[in-house]
Every structure is written in structure tokens, then in C-alpha cells.
Amino acid sequence: METTTITLQELDEKGACSYGRELFKKHYPKGKADYWDVIKKCVALEEFWDINWILKELDFTLPDLVLDELPDEPVFVYPGKVIIKGDVKITGKVLTKGGLHVIGKLIVCGYARIWGNTKADEINVSDDGRIYDGAYGKTINVSGDGRIDDGANGETINVSDDGRIYDGAYGKTINVSGDGRIDDGANGETINVSDDGRIYDGAYGETINVSGDGRIYDGAYGKTINVSDKGRIIC
């Protein structure tokens, strides 16, 4: 596979953190190393956030990688966009530079982690799965301790059973129930909050329904707002 060289000087110029620079100097005292050797070392050390930084900040990008299925590896790293033509279930760690795009259904579960913006026709995050850098899909379901960081964008977004979306949710229909949480606001045509669901930092929509101990904090703004069955909007 095509490669390049990472140097300590480049890390300094790109603003790498002191911990990352010291780690590089420890393992590569000559001040330079092959790109993939560094990636393999980070995988072995479980320094996944350092890999994410390398992918985002260093000027090395490979062409789009189109696959029928994701390789069965505990950690998959690619400095470019990865396109999967079909449904995929992820239980390991996936780190990309250009994002993971699934033409089909994506399941993220079992302590799985995805770094890089994620797109799919349908996204299901559960069982302590995590998506970092945002999620985009027609339908997005987050439940069972699943998490999406950096926002979720979809036509229908369902958050339940202790699922979490951080940095906002944007969709036509947004449903929050069963201890589901959305932080940093929700924006949609129809927003339904019920059964101990929570939206923090406001809700903005055409129709907003709050019931069954549902809560919206920091205000709700819409043409039609219905509050019933112990639902609350708290400013």
C-alpha cells in the first residue's frame, strides 16, 4: 500500500500534543518513521485518538476505497473515504480520514467505535457502540447505551433506552423516549418527547409533543406545542 514518512518536525508544525510528540520520540528516536509503522504502533498501544489525529491533520490521503464488506479485523484504519456496498455490522474499531459511507444498513454495537463522519441509509447504534465525528442517515436509531458524538442528521431519528446524541440532532421526525437523551438541541419538523426522554438546550420544530414525563430544557419553539401527561418544558 502507498505510504509516506512521518517526522517529528511535521508533528510539531501541525500542533501535535506534547504527549503525542513524546510518544513518537520514544519509539522513533531518529525523528522519522514510516506512516504505516506509526499506525501499527498506535494500534498496538491502543492510542486510537492519536490515530484519529494523524488521519485528520497529516497531509496524506489515499483514493476512495470501495468494498463489498469491511475486512474482519479488530481495528481497521484507512487514510481516505471507505465505501461499503451493502449492510455491515461493526463490533471493532474503524478509523477513516474521509468517512465511512455504507450503501445499506449500518449496525454499531458491542463496544464498537467509529472515528470519522459516518453515513448510511440506516444507522443503528446500541450496546455501548460509539460514533465520533457525526452521523448522517435516512433513519438513525440510538439505544442501549449507544452514543453519537458531533451530531446526528437524518429524516427520522429515534433515541431511546439510555441512548445519547451529543452536539444536536437534525431531522424531519425526532423521537426521544425511554431515558433517551439529546444534548445541544433538536431541530425537526415533528419532535416527540415521552417516557422520560430528555432534550437539552432547546427544541425547534413545526410540531412539538411532550408527554409521559418527557422533558425539554432551555425552551421549545414551534407552531404547535402540546404538553400532557406530566410532560414539561423548562426554560
Question: What tags apply to this protein structure?
Answer:
235 residues; alpha/beta; eleven-stranded parallel β-sheet; ten-stranded parallel β-sheet; 4 helices; 16% helix; 46% strand; elongated
Walk me through what this model shows.
- This protein is 16% helix and 46% strand.
- The protein is α/β, with parallel strands linked by helices and 235 residues long.
- Strands 3, 5, 6, 8, 10, 12, 14, 16, 18, 20 and 22 form an eleven-stranded parallel sheet that branches. It has a ten-stranded parallel sheet with strand order 4-7-9-11-13-15-17-19-21-23, covered by helices on one side. Strands 1-2 form a two-stranded antiparallel sheet.
- It starts with a strand and ends with a strand.
- The radius of gyration is 20 Å and the shape is elongated.
- The chain has four helices and 23 strands.
Q: How far apart, in Å, are the first and last alpha carbons? A: 55 Å
Q: H/E element string? A: EHHEHHEEEEEEEEEEEEEEEEEEEEE
Radius of gyration: 20 Å
Helix content: 10-25%
Task: Count every beta strand, where a strand is a DSSP E run of 2 or more residues.
Answer: 23
What would you call the shape? elongated
**What is the average per-residue confidence, as pLDDT, rounded to a whole number?**
97
